[in-house]
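Ticket reopened. Same input as before:
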Amino acid sequence: MTVAVFFGCSFIAFGPAFALFIFTIARDPLRVIILIAGAFFWLLSLLLSSLVWFIAMKASNDKDQQLQRGLLIFGVMFSVLLQEVFRFAYYKLLRKASEGLAALSEDERSPISVQQMAYVAGLGFGIMSGAFSMINILADSLGPGIVGIHGESQYYFLTSAFMTMAVTLLHTFWGVVFFDGCENRRWWVIAVVVALHLLVSGLTFLNPIYEGSLPPAYVILVSMAVWSFFSCGGSLQNIQQFLTCRKNDAGSEVAS
Amino acid sequence: MAENLANVLHEQLSEGFPDTHRNNSGEGADRRRVVEGVDQELNGQPPSARPSQRLESEEDEDEELTLKYGAKHVIMLFVPVTLCMVVVVATIKSVSFYTQKDGQLIYTPFPEDTETVGQRALNSILNAAIMISVIIVMTLLLVVLYKYRCYKVIHGWLIISSLLLLFFFSFIYLGEVFKTYNVGMDYITLALIIWNFGVVGMICIHWKGPLHLQQAYLIMISALMALVFIKYLPEWTAWLILAVISIYDLVAVLCPKGPLRMLVETAQERNEPIFPALIYSSTMVWLVNMADTDAESRKKPALNSTTPESQAAPSQSTQGPDDGGFTTDWELRQQETLGHMESSEETRRQVQEMPSARPPAIQSDDSEEMSVSGGGGSGLFHSQRGKASDWNWDWNTTLACFVAILIGLCLTLLLLAIFKKALPALPISITFGLVFYFATDNLVRPFMDQLALHQFYI
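Engineering reply: fixed in the latest deploy. New output:
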């Protein structure tokens, strides 16, 4: 394992999230705070779910490998559910904060919209999730060793990096869609987000058969990207205008 | 030293910030004028209603300004905390000197490598008790000095501590870094480097200097102090000291007869600008005797000869252990660095947050100091983790403590904005840091290790 692997995998895993942070979040203090608070909420959910798993593991037979694997799978599922619960709790908190901010400002409008908060919160969840999954692996990749010396896959680091990137971006999109569903009281949206999260985590149980976990995760990622784009007001027209750098037609009418 | 730094930083921040503050107050005044204009237009309003409206709108504007300042100040605290933590963690991971056990401070005389767990617990409790009483004595001493207007003594104390930190500790640090990377260096070049570093630092901190350079120096100094504490405080002692410091901070700031509260009130009565530095100073009044119990000659002999009495008389202590400048933040940070205390960042922030308990007008000045102290604390925290052992190191725990400390900082600032009076900065951050440290290390770590082993993703 070399420095090249370290840098390559860290850029694969954290490149998009880092770019999103630098270009959209770093300049606004309020967004940074919401990001860190989102990371904190994800951390809380992880803490509680690992507590449950730890208790279950200690109460059971240590030597039974199948049982331990089963408990781990249960731990993963429980953790996914708890993450979504905490996402909902964070939504409630942000709603209250947004109302407070709006009440204090002059023009009765919050300085940050719910959709922006949804994006930042989702990114907070994603960054923390990705960091917790990947950082120890990255640290190990700097040290000596041979990957897969006992017959496991050689592509451990690479697949971990790609999976981490997928999970980070997925959390961002899930955040946008989830908050949108909560805002408009569309509960089926929330159910779909939870189901997709369970699906993506469940697919990782197929590792190291990476064909079963990575391509489906990326398919879900692309579809979530499209869905979240349309749910927060994007349209094909917007894309066209963005690509051709044309101004908004409505804007030019108002000006004239 | 930290006191000195805090003082200087505060003064310089006051100089550096008036523009922004004037602009902001200008904006507020404009808004007030606009609102008043609207009031005057409402002819139907009875005259008594309009002044109250004006008052309300002014209060709302103040609140809005506070909140806007709040977010900006929180970020201004995040950056130094993060930087300090990064420096300390990087040093701990690369320079092995700071994780080697080379004796203990004279204030923690009881060793922790005993045979039974009970003996170790007892020793750490005794160590913590001694350390805390030293801190209390120094705080009271500082308050007494301030009350009787012995400003020269306080200034001298601060200058000596910053001298020690800037020259001696950085000399040791540089030496160890060179050893780690096997860099050959002659004494002449080294003397030039240390001389320039120290003198520029003294000027920046005690007089004037570019704001970013001041902040950089404060971060470096926080990191240095954290590293020193990491090295010399044993593990359980460090954790205990951290917890007790939090309680002491609560008592000292909130009780009517608490020393820090008396300091705040005295300074408010006198309406003096030195106030923020003293707040920092009082919390930082920790004398750390750098003398090794086995009298190794790594330190200057002068340090080894310090005694509590001599420390109590700063005027004679050219060689005294004047860690009077050590902010509680710093101490806490050290504790963090020494053990698995990730709360050093928190403690730092906590100390910083204390001054921010003052009205928003001063917050802009304090945030810089706070961020630096917070950074130092964070650094301590993480370095504490590092000291445990290299193979025991878990980056997840580091990250979790980092986030917990930042959130503790946010919450403390939020409480400050709500209550608008002097509040203890440490309890929330320390509690969060400790809780998250132990929880992540014992619960989350095995879970994440198992997940990584099977390559499951949550």
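The mean pLDDT of chain B is 68. The longest helix of chain B spans residues 49-94. Please confirm and we'll close it.
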